[in-house]
Amino acid sequence: MKIQPLALFPTNITHTIHEVTKDEQENWFDLYFKHCGNDGRTHDLLGYEQVQLEPSLEGFYENKVMPSVREYFKTLSIDSTKFDVHVTKTFFNVVDDNGINKHNHEENHISFTYYPYIKPGKEKNLILYDTKPCHANELHQGWFHHYVDEWTEMNCTNFSIPVGQGSMLIFPSNMSHNLAKKDTESTVIKSFNTKEDLLKSRFCVAGDMIITKKAQTRIYHRTLSSPEKWKTFS
């Protein structure tokens, strides 16, 4: 008997590794303090989500984010030159020993997380969850948990990804995710008031993107029109 398993309908996650220089880390630390409150806290939940507008980050988006995004679409056999990618927000998600609640960014299309600095010993896994209510091969929701002998990419409904310094992940924005935490750890947004505080942390830069047609494209193709064609009301 010849067996040929087919992994149909998988979810595409692109994991790239980038070199991080000391100068880049220093720039991220400086930007943290520029985009935080007087209490040393920052997060998109608190309204700090415009880091992408910083001129010093042009190289970051050109040399790290966009090559990773192009690899993401290349895996799907999609020509990313046929549409525009817009970074709608970028923010900091910095932790020491605490975790992060399960959430998604489904108001966008694709998202990224990037880790320019992780203090040794502060590593945590990023957990991604299947967007469907149950696995396509389950008889019903939760059935696998009673019968699976080993969790693999073929049968799991969530997957824990170890990330190190320089890691960048590109994934669908509607995919729920959280940061692994122990029962004794909090999910409260912490304060970091000095560089010494940040040097004790796991420093994550997160961002969201939407896809639109190029301005000169007339055919619909199931894609948002270019923002140049939008009419805004307040």
Give an account of the 3D structure.
The protein is α+β, with helices and mostly antiparallel strands and 234 residues long. It has four helices and nine strands, in the order βααββββαβββαβ. The chain has a five-stranded antiparallel β-sheet with strand order 1-7-4-9-2. The model has no long low-confidence stretch (mean pLDDT 94).
Summarize model confidence as the mean pLDDT: 94
CATH class: Mainly Beta
Q: What is the CATH fold-level name? A: Jelly Rolls
Question: Which blocks of ≥5 consecutive residues have pLDDT under 50?
Answer: none
| CATH homology superfamily | q2cbj1_9rhob like domain
The helix-strand sequence is EHHEEEEHEEEHE
Helix segment tally = 4
What's the total count of β strands? Answer: 9
State which percent range the strand residues make up: 25-35%
| Major sheet size, sense and barrel closure | 5 strands, antiparallel
- What CATH architecture label applies? Sandwich
- For the record, the count of structural domains works out to 1
Radius of gyration: 19 Å
Portion of residues in helices? Answer: 10-25%
Distance between the termini: 66 Å
Principal-axis shape equals: globular
Read across the widest sheet, the strand sequence of neighbours is 1-7-4-9-2
Helix-strand makeup class? alpha+beta
